[in-house]
Specification:
Blueprint lengths: L1 E4 L1 H7 L10 E5 L12 E4 L2 E8 L2 E5 L2 E5 L3 E5 L6 E4 L5 E7 L26 E2 L3 H18 L6 H17 L8 E2 L3 H14 L15 H7 L4 H12 L3 H19 L4 H7 L5 H12 L3 H11 L1
Parallel strand pairs: 1-3
Antiparallel strand pairs: 2-9, 4-7, 4-9, 5-6, 5-8, 6-11, 7-10
Organism: Chryseobacterium lathyri
Pfam family, one: HTH_18
InterPro entries: Homeodomain-like_sf (IPR009057), HTH_AraC (IPR018060), Tscrpt_reg_AraC-type_HTH (IPR020449)
Amino acid sequence: MKPRETLEEFYILHGKEHDQDAHCNVYRREDFECSKNLKPVYRRDFYKVSMMCEGTGILSYADKFIKIDKPSIVFLNPLIPYSWEPTSSVQTGYFCLFTEEFVSSELKNESLSQSVLFKAGGDHVFFPDEASIQLLKNVYESMLNEAQSNYDNKYSLLRNYIQIIMHEAMKIQPPQTYAQHSNASERISMLFLELLDHQFPVSLDNVMLLKNANEFATQLNIHTNHLNKALKETTGKTTSEWIAGRVMKEAKSLLQFSNWSVNEIAYCLGFEHSSNFIISFKKKTGDSPNQFRKRILSKS
């Protein structure tokens, strides 16, 4: 799984020019090679709200996949690792892409804060009825026109259109048509280990984002117990054991090969207080971080 995909890389993949000053863009699927397979990516730095009008395909994330064979609306945020496999040559519809900079307090207001657009867990695919399909088509057409206009406040208007799409989706009952992959435990374990591996190496500008079992499970869109069960079944270790082991490995490496302070190492590894890191490290190794560093360096 690729660790990260930027908006610019997404445009390059689809052979399009990228306007770096535009924090929101709208397209027709048929004009953007949306039939192209999208491989799993750990983290994208943009949101995507896509409407399929014609065409079929399979959307996969974590241990679930859903066959899309009728008009649908799909919400994807930067925390959802997903892949798309088209199963038809015809792929029509619309989608909009926007960055975190585009997300305003209005777009994430109280009533919409629980929307699937902003949550890593939950359902992200909805199948609208005929009335909603027509409404959504009209909204996307208006967005297309507005995105190409010179109106000074067009981005505020585009936010309003996205809110309409979000509210419309919130009216729709989530689908109950998800299926389990035949090798679900192995797939979950593979995705988890890749997510864990891509947390590293850390730096002062790239700190550990996912720090506990609940955060990893949320990222994978599954329950913590489900993740633990899959890992225990396939690896013999729990989620917490894997995380703690990898953190300790990174901590030892940084103490040996960097000149970072203990506070800096603790910060990058996701510890709220350096004292917590020191206690955890000593419990695992028998040495404090400074004792470990002195002992290792004295041997080199």
